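ARCHIVE CARD
SHELF: 3
SLOT: left
DATA:
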Amino acid sequence: MKIAIFAGGVGTRLWPLSRKNTPKQFEKIVGEKSTLQLAVDRLIPDFKSENIYIATGKRYENIVRPHLPEIPEENFIFEPDMRDVGPAVGLAISAIGKYHPDTPVAIVWSDHFVKKERRFREVLKMAESLVKDNPNSLILIGQRARFANQNLGWIELGEEVKQEKGTKIFHFKRMVYRPTLEEAESFLKAKNYAWNPGYFVTTPRFLLSQFKKFTPDLHQGLMRIQDAIGKKNYSQALGEIYPTFEKISFDNAILERMDPKHISVIAADLGWSDVGAWEALKEALEISSGENVTRGKVLVNDSLDNLVFNYTDQLTVGIDLEKMIVINTDDVLLICTKDSVPKIKKLVESLAGTPNEHLT
């Protein structure tokens, strides 16, 4: 199996640590390695580095190559422009499919946290086996929901197809993106929903057939790029064609339009968390609900349910704090409530054209 790790996002919700020139996937958010390095590390025990591909923006080429010296040079796929996840997945699957059209390919993401790494690899191999048995299929990997999360996509599970080694495989019914709190609470109680981490396994030939069916213009461009791979005009073709693609999410372009009969879901507890926002990172790292999560030189007294990360040599002190996010870097100090984290993206966007634009 081939595995494509996507590492192209800017990560505005983790500002001020994550910025345009040094986005979250290259930063040491959890432990002493970046989330991208951790994403590779959790695969290596069972998957060879030559089967791992990295899809990211051309602007990060000088960062990502030395960041992952174990990945072969030819396994880096660089997007010349940001066109959303639909074209990004299309480019990666076209590049891998040039030489491996019928090999199962897993799509995973670099800015996630997975506690149960062995279990994660087991599920990937299970999905690989299912795709080998049925090449015209797409296997979604769902995380069993832990709470009523409004900030994620949810997968509604259909009837159970079968069970392998205690892991259940379901028919796919539908996806719901960022439900209301009331909907999320009902999903949690219903037991027939799972969080959608965005992981899936399929073959390039089948997925490209879905691009051809639902996004013919995008598919035509992808085929022109694929034809140029390995030729002298590849860089020119990529640079001319890719920026013309419509910005569209993968869900909108493909998943929401596919015939559900081609989609199955493996629902398992992977210990997965999306650490793309500060409050999500806190939930992933905390051992018990309501505890303080800190990093660096931090002292918090009489405080409850806070995340305080200090990336400076100066001591950061908090007293009588509750449900706060405090991020201290060399040039920005962010203080907000956990509920206010969604406003960070708009604040960063508002800095464009101001004297503080360089901080984004």
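SLOT: right
DATA:
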Amino acid sequence: MVRIKPRSLRPGDTIAVVSPASAIDDDRLGRGLAVMEKGGYIFKLFPHTRDADDYLAGSDADRAADLMAAFDDPECAAVMCSRGGYGCSRLFPFIDLDRMAASGKMLCGFSDITVLHLALNRRGLVTMHTPMPITLSYEREPWVHDSFFRLLQGDPTIAPEVPRAETMVDGTGEGELTGGCLCLLCDSIGTPDALDCRGKILVIEDVDEKPHRVDAMLTHLINTGIIQEAAGIVVGEMTRTDDLSDPTMGGKSWRWIFEDRLGKLGIPTVVNFPFGHMKTMLSIPLGVQARLNAGEGTLTYLESPCAEA
């Protein structure tokens, strides 16, 4: 497989904004884009970016058309998803993933965008797990914005003020970064673009999942044998999971569940790595080689995620 790195961005570049999953309201879209505009970027909103149809941002065909048009548009240097939610997996019958990867465009987003990261990484394209307009519309620590803008320009370096992860299983591991939202990683199993952990560093996070469902998803990854092939595991946060504990099913915390399920695998593992749906979110590249030092709680990138501008 040929590795395809997007070119690094620079202020003045035009970024396509699309909504391939759920709808975003105008207020959050505007506030999120205002943050990006301060960084010097220009935006091109595609025709159905503001569409809404219940839990989707318009029809599958329209969302797919915008996504393909954004990757095909020579005016746009990158493609940013307005938000996650749900809906990206419904687009696969309507999009050409090979053409999207071959374009070399930078894809930015997370949450439901996980399914696009998996599919495009499998085709060689390095992608960016980053905040989106909906997440940028909320107040964040300054280093969150700094991490985002630096990654757009090809620098994934983690600043000293960023909290280190906590050791769950000591050790070191090297490999390509893969992963994203836990429920979508599980949903991918059995599809042509299923999660592949062989010799890779798996990053995991999620939001609004009940503790017993977190247990079920981790157990599924173990029962398939997929997660045991990982060279390292980086856990972010199961945001609001502990608040959703069902009193009729006990009150185990999500951290206890991860330790119970993953702590016995012998794979270098850290927890509370600052990425995902948590307020303090790093921007990280997917599809690049990295080194996890679980004892020190650090993730180091072994290559640039971008081609030179």
